[in-house]
TrEMBL record:
Gene Ontology MF terms: endonuclease activity
Limits of the Endonuclease GajA/Old nuclease/RecF-like AAA domain: 1-383
Protein's recorded name: ATP-dependent endonuclease
Residues making up the signal peptide according to the UniProt record: none
Record bears the keyword Iron-sulfur: no
Origin: domain of life: Bacteria
């Protein structure tokens, strides 16, 4: 069996409506931005499944989004339901089915079973509750919660019910103990929990694995194994007796002197006097052991001297060893656990990226036979990029504070091509889009490096708004938008702004070469020879912004240059900043010529003089001049300069230089009058709003 879902109501960040989160067998990686509910999800599992966890809640464990009206009408209640489902290869009379037999809600295969934790005010207290809260006349909801805390919280009860919670059938404690729920929270002290044999974890693990070569020897039956281990214990006791006798001999003279005081104090009477004796069992010597780290050089150091990350890994490995011990029927008999579960909060704590990958590999290779299901919460893009999309669950709080749950593997439906593409694309940097509150998708490195600076020019802060800028390296938006399209099931409902180029094209009517890029001023110049497209990107029309400034889609909007004016980002940058030489970076070719062209434009020189400065060398320059001269628009000089700028850019190097220049200019309080292109302004404003 496996835990197939949890339904959390009124617990911490989860409100009173059904908050159903589905799980898969094996590994479940839960991600999301801060305060999206990841830690509270693991705590909810712990409340239901961990027999040893406190079941009494504090007043702040209630979700406080309830209205005063509802709070007066009925006392608040926390409810958490965990559903178990039958595994694919489970046998009909498995221990799993026996364990949950009294919790079943569906008897036919595949069966389902439920455990429900409730923290509630007993019915007999309800009348007094409503009467007392009715006497409070205030608009401050905290007054009502304080009244509940001081007058009623001590009367609250907790129960765990098996099966349909409406029947109020309390789950059998012995059956609950068959579940081994191990929860490692983010604030863990592994040095306290780990390093000496006096510690319960280490002692229990040592006791299970001592004489392990005998215990796992399949050539011997159980009786033979027990006989050999008994003989080893006897040998140990004999050797230990020799040590005790040696110690007693060394103490003989000192003992007489030390115990001579017994006569003076009256402790010796009736021909009896104190003496020393003793024996040692192997189990009693566990406390003498300490965990060390031994290097190949032969040097040994105490484990307490390791880094926190290394010790975290050691602790987790020992915990898995303990879970193996607790599931051993040979060792614990009928007290053995049936269903081991491991929940880890932020395993990346103190681990550098390579160790995070190694940790995940370790879990996959070593935990599958010792742990039936694993739940991991993380903020680490490194961990996210190392697991499959099918293993990732994303929690996202929407603007109205409702919870959106995305299942990345299911979001693509039957589109395996897009799913495969995104899976390969999500490295440790691009996985950041899954944690952000909003996303800006761009085509290239220049937009990626400069978007945060553009936002600052417009007095927005992408980092403070938790907006992630992702360079998808081309026009592959559609693959990624399948993750975010709120019209479909299992997707992430966060705002996504796509910044893309128009890239107008044309093709010869009589030719077979297909569409080729053209300049915006070439559109419709020769309709007898060419067929034109003012935009070669279908995304622009599909997710365009309306005239009212609102997107045609709930959470996705596309931003691009104005049709018949725009071409690429570099083209728009020059067209918008013809009086700002800041964009003329060192790596740009024809820099001297472009500087003169900028001066000509600033000085109002006519188009003819600018064309003469441009010159007719090169095929592309001849094409630009010929088309510009046929163009009837009033902005011919602007297009001429933007075309020359575009054809002079070496994108990679220029991206870094432009970012540096714009950043330095910003520190000078915008000394150069740089303008962010309108469509980028609109994208930043929309995604941050």
């Amino acid at each position: 069996m496996y835990i197939s879902q949890i339904n959390i109501q009124n617990f911490r960040s989860f409100n009173g409506i059904d908050n159903i989160i589905e799980f898969s067998e094996g590994v479940n990686v839960i991600i999301g931005h801060n305060n999206s509910g990841k830690s509270n999800l693991l705590k909810a599992l712990d409340l239901v499944l961990n027999c040893g966890s406190p079941k009494k809640l504090a007043i702040d464990d209630f979700n406080k989004s309830i209205s005063i009206k509802d709070l007066k009408a009925k006392s608040p209640k926390v409810s958490i339901t965990v559903t178990f489902s039958e595994s694919v290869n489970e046998t009909e009379y498995s221990e799993d089915l026996i364990t949950v037999s009294t919790w079943l809600t569906e008897l036919k295969s595949p069966y389902k079973a439920q455990l429900t934790y409730e923290f509630y005010l007993p019915e007999k207290e309800e009348a007094e509750y409503q009467e007392m809260l009715a006497d409070i006349v205030s608009d401050d909801i905290e007054e009502y919660w304080l009244s509940i805390k001081h007058n009623f919280l001590r009367k609250y009860k907790s129960n765990i019910y098996g099966g349909n919670p409406n029947y109020k059938q309390v789950a059998d404690v012995e059956a609950l103990k068959k579940i081994d729920f191990q929860f490692l929270d983010a604030i863990r002290d592994v040095e306290r929990d780990l390093f000496t044999g006096k510690n319960t974890l280490l002692r229990e693990v040592i006791d299970f694995f001592i004489d392990y070569e005998i215990k796992i020897d399949k050539t011997k039956n159980k009786s033979q194994q027990q006989t050999e281990i008994k003989q080893l214990k006897k040998e140990f006791s004999t050797n230990a007796s020799q040590l005790i006798n040696t110690l007693k001999r060394r103490m003989e003279r000192g003992k007489r002197e030390m115990l001579s005081y017994a006569s003076n104090t009256g402790a010796s009477f009736g021909n009896a006097e104190p003496d020393f004796d003793g024996h040692i069992l192997d189990t009693e010597l566990y406390s003498a052991l300490r965990l060390i780290v031994k290097y190949q050089s032969g040097i040994t150091v105490p484990a307490t001297h390791n880094g926190l990350g290394y010790n975290n890994l050691i602790f987790m490995s020992l915990l898995l060893a303990k879970m193996q011990r607790d599931a051993s029927g040979d060792y614990l008999g009928s007290n053995a656990k049936v269903f081991p579960i491991l929940a880890i909060e932020e395993p990346e704590a103190h681990l550098h990226p390579a160790m995070q990958y190694k940790f995940l590999k370790f879990l996959r290779e070593n935990a599958k036979e010792k742990v039936r299901q694993i739940f991991i919460t993380t903020h680490s893009p490194n961990i996210t990029s190392a697991v499959s999309l099918d293993e990732i669950i994303c929690l996202h709080k929407k603007d109205d504070n409702t919870l959106n749950i995305g299942y990345l593997g299911k979001a693509f439906g039957k589109d395996l091509k897009s799913k495969t593409y995104v899976q390969r694309f999500l490295d440790s940097t691009k996985s950041d889009m899954l944690f952000a509150r909003g996303v800006i998708l761009v085509e290239g490195i220049t937009e990626q490096l400069n978007m945060s600076i553009f936002a600052q020019y417009e007095e927005f802060d992408l980092e403070s708004n938790h907006i992630s800028v992702i360079n998808i390296g081309g026009r592959y938006f559609e693959h990624f938008l399948k993750l975010f399209n709120s019209n479909n099931n299992y997707t992430l409902h966060k705002k996504v702004a796509c910044i893309t180029d128009l890239d107008p094209t044309r093709k010869e009517i009589a030719g077979d070469d297909g569409y080729k890029k053209c300049y915006p001023y070439e559109l419709e110049l020769d309709v007898g020879k060419y067929i034109y497209k003012s935009c070669s990107n279908d995304l622009v029309d599909k997710f365009t912004m309306g005239t009212d400034g609102k997107s045609q889609h709930n959470n996705i909007a596309c931003f691009s240059q104005r049709k018949s004016q725009g071409k690429t980002f570099e083209y728009a940058l020059a067209y918008t900043n013809l009086d700002c030489k800041l964009i003329l970076t060192e790596s740009i070719s024809n820099c001297e010529e472009l500087t003169d062209l900028f001066d000509y434009y600033r000085d109002g020189k006519p188009l003819g003089e600018m064309i003469e400065l441009l010159g007719k060398k090169g095929k592309e320059n001849k094409r630009i001049i010929e088309s510009i001269l046929s163009y009837k628009g009033a902005d011919n000089r602007e297009h001429l300069l933007a075309s020359r700028y575009l054809n002079s850019i070496q994108k990679g190097e220029n991206a870094y230089e432009l970012a540096k220049a714009l950043d330095e200019n910003l520190l000078k309080k915008n000394a150069a009058n740089f303008k962010v292109p309108d469509y980028i302004k609109d994208a930043i404003r929309w995604v941050c709003s």
